[in-house]
Amino acid sequence: MKAKTIAVCAVFAAIMCVFSVITVPIGPVPVTLGFLGVMVTAVILGAKRGALSVAVFILLGAVGLPVFSGFKGGFQVLLGPTGGYIWSYVPMALLIGFASAKNPKNKWLAMLKIFLVCIGAALLGYAVGTLQFMLVQKTSFAQALMICVVPFIPFDIAKAAAAVYLGYTVKAALKRSGALD
Prior knowledge:
8 helices, 75% helix, globular
């Protein structure tokens, strides 16, 4: 792996560290910018580098650095009620990264495609996160949906739209500068 690739992946892992600690507590599961960080990273870096950046972020949190929501860190967060959302970040990055690799020549169609894939990735995150929440909190599926999914739908639609716009804008700038190949 080239030094430039390692540096870019490290920068995006750091960006996710910043995004993920920003929280708005609205209940047992806070609103964070974690999904946004994963989405933007995957749109810009693609599947392999995006997933690597996400994995580095998760490892930083797992060893105890306070990079998860609310400045939490440690493996216990990954095993706690909201840990499933964090576990879903790598497959989310892979899904978005693969989809962003080949796009239609029409920029707006490409952006719509990536937006829809980001929504699909958020649904994957909901599934994994809600399942772990149900297991840890011993709640029903209906209760978990009302706590973990329904309040977040508008926020995550906005995050997906922001990720596509930011991702395309930053990716183009990074390519022009030679930071991305």
